[in-house]
Amino acid sequence: MFSHIFVGTNHFERALAFYTPLMQALGIEPRFCDGQRPWAGWQSSPDPRPLFVIGKPFDGKAHQPGNGQMTAFLAKDRATVDRAHAVALAHGGACEGPPGLRPGYHPDYYGAYFRDPDGNKLCVACHRPQG
């Protein structure tokens, strides 16, 4: 469905320091990193797409996080949701909702919400039953 998702940043090195350990916690492999451009991308597995990309906006204007926009990453299990949320907060993220069940979505929805250091809203969610 998606080719890539691009999330803007005003401070590339800070964003890279946030997203690198977050992607590691999620088991998402890096694809490229170019500090001169600046941008970095991680790829899905086993397919190479969609890509998740961070970088400065192409038009050269300042990045501004949008209201109502969110990128949600799929976690293989609830422990990964917990770990990713903790890693995000340890690397400059802000909590928007701690890990837990959200039965209003469906009985097995387990998610956590946070913002990156640029204010972009993110989620990590697992849709599988416990165990």
- Compressed to H and E, one letter per element, the order equals EHEEEEHEEE
- How would you classify the helix and strand content by structural class? alpha/beta
Low-confidence residue ranges: none
Number of strands: 8
Provide the spatial order of strands within the biggest beta sheet.
1-4-3-2
Largest sheet: 4 strands, mixed
- Overall spatial form: globular
Radius of gyration: 14 Å
Measured between the Cα atoms of the first and last residue, the distance is 29 Å
Mean pLDDT: 96
Name the helicity range: 10-25%
The tally of helices reads 2
Short description:
The chain has 131 residues and is of the alpha/beta class. The protein has helices spanning 12-26, 78-90, and strands at 4-8, 29-34, 39-43, 51-55, 71-74, 94-101, 110-115, 121-126.
Description:
The protein is α/β, with parallel strands linked by helices. The protein is built from two helices and eight strands; from the N terminus they run βαββββαβββ. A hairpin with a 7-residue loop joins strand 3 and strand 4. The protein starts with a strand and ends in a 5-residue tail after the last strand.
Please supply descriptive tags for the structure shown above:
131 residues, alpha/beta, four-stranded mixed β-sheet, 21% helix, globular
Secondary structure blueprint with pairings:
Blueprint: E1 4-8, H1 12-26, E2 29-34, E3 39-43, E4 51-55, E5 71-74, H2 78-90, E6 94-101, E7 110-115, E8 121-126
Parallel strand pairs: 1-4, 5-8
Antiparallel strand pairs: 2-3, 3-4, 6-7, 7-8
